[in-house]
Amino acid sequence: MKSLNTRLISGGSARPEIRPGDIWQTSAGVKIIISSVTPGRVTYTREGYEHPCISPVESFYRAYFPVKPGAMTAWCQANNPLEKVKKLKALIQAKQESNKSAKY
User: CA 60 to CA 31: how far, in whole Å?
Assistant: First the structure.
């Protein structure tokens, strides 16, 4: 019998990378911003708290998880919805004006 070779290779870290500037949050929803990362600890600032906090990397992974930007946020950054709404309003008003002038 032939063995199945899927060519999948295990390796790498199963945990997300901690990078300065990233936003993470607790299970309660408190958001933090990463200030700096060293091999042994993470420095971050809590939302609504002005002083930096320091945590060991292992306990940081247990307490926090990364916040991923939503699909709608990514779409709004790629496309300016305010400009699109303004263009649509202008088209609708122009159409209404042309219909009024055509009736009289």
Answer: 13
Give the pLDDT mean for 55-77.
81
Provide the sign of the torsion angle of the four alpha carbons 12, 13, 19, 23, taken in this order.
Answer: positive
Structure tokens at 36: 């700096």
- Cα atoms in the Cβ-side hemisphere of radius 13 Å centred on 55: 18
Question: How many CB atoms neighbour CB 33 within 10 A?
Answer: 13
| pLDDT tens per residue across span 27-63 | 888 889 999 999 999 999 998 888 999 999 999 999 9
| Structural element, H or E, at residue 81 | helix 81-103
